[in-house]
Amino acid sequence: MERLTYREAVGELFLLPSKTRKNPFAQTEAFYRQLGEPGSRFPVIHVAGTNGKGSVCAYVNSMLSAAGYRVGMFTSPHLVDVRERLVLQNGRIGEETFARLFCVLQRRLEDFAQGAYRPTFFETLFFLFMLWMEEEEPDAVILETGMGGRLDVTNVVRRPAVTAITGIGLDHCEFLGTTKEAIAREKAGIFKEAVPAVCWQTGDAVERVFRDRARELSVPLRAVSKKEVKLSKIKKNCIDFFLKSAYDRDIEVHLETSAIYQTENAALAVAILGQAERFFTISEEQMIRGLSQMRWEGRMEEVRPGVYLDGAHNPDGIRAFLQSVRGDGFLGERWLLFGACADKDVREMAALLQEAGLFTRSFGVLLAGGRGLSEPELERLFAGGPAGFSGVFADADKAVGQLLSVKGEDVRLYIAGSLYLAGAVKRFLAR
Known about the structure:
Layout lengths: L5 H14 L5 H11 L8 E5 L4 H14 L4 E4 L11 E3 L2 E2 L2 H17 L9 H16 L3 E5 L17 E4 L7 H4 L3 H8 L9 E4 L3 H13 L4 E4 L4 E7 L2 E7 L5 E6 L6 H14 L8 H10 L7 E4 L2 E3 L5 H12 L6 E6 L7 H10 L5 E5 L9 H8 L6 E5 L2 H11 L4 E6 L2 H12 L1
Parallel strand pairs: 1-5, 1-6, 2-5, 6-7, 7-8, 13-17, 14-15, 14-17, 15-16
Antiparallel strand pairs: 2-3, 3-4, 9-10, 10-11, 12-13
Helix pairs in contact: 1-4, 3-9, 3-10, 4-5, 7-8, 11-12
């Protein structure tokens, strides 16, 4: 392939969803071997799960960085810039590097024996990231799975340093299964023989799936639960809590967030590094500093005074979002702006939001690209409910622009329902 500019490479990338489909894992794996398994010679931390994967990866990254390690991180989705997914030392991949490696990848595809193989959008970004890591030689590589685990492109890495699974919920059921146990089996597909693993205690049935799989593969498994987190203080945009350490004593931790659910993600991240002790040395002070320094956009993020953005996009995400709203101590009015993808369990999400009784007014918003709910669907979900439904906006720009113009200091606006909506809001505010 001839050399492309960054803009041309991104243009080609965003055409892939219309030209590709999910590949058989064996083909994906074969192409990765053909590439020479780039990036896999460094300690890899591999994270799967339903909610919180990105936050867990970000906390691990922040703690390792605080300890002086040079860390590469691959996450998804992005909110505004596709390069948010490919990070080294907390900086995005450069535009020129992105374009150059995109062309390298296309040339390697031309040489691949299985000519019908064409990587998807997500697979292309993963391969590009791993080629970048091979050049940069980081101290650690953090990989967040896309959907599932067993058949995810990130699972081509044969020997990670540690694997981890966050909480399990009912999401992507058409691909992963209709029960939490079935979904857990797909996620547990990232476990590797004798490689230490960490999981969040979602429930007895799910944990049994993880423990059975760990036993089959002789995996040392560490389960983390809510019992290891004790809330201390919740103030505006910060939380103090006590975390039970490996030495059976409590460590006081400060997080710069108003999202209560981040305490659990932080606890899981600490356990991950505990299982990776043979690769990394981190002091208690570095751990605490790394946790307090982590910032993750779109997770109860205050994007303007009194405006909070959360990427809650499924029922479990909405439950976690509502827990944080309840704990904010705000005495004025709360307004809700909600927009969701049509393939989510929107009925349960809307019911949870209405039953919470936390919002005096609520608004719907249509998502760009046709993935979101229609205006009649949003109206049916919310009209007549207790949250003072006030209509549907045509897009995020109109919604945020108008609501900001009428919102007073005695009102907090919460925006939730989709990471696509979160990205649209961020783009509007950046302009």
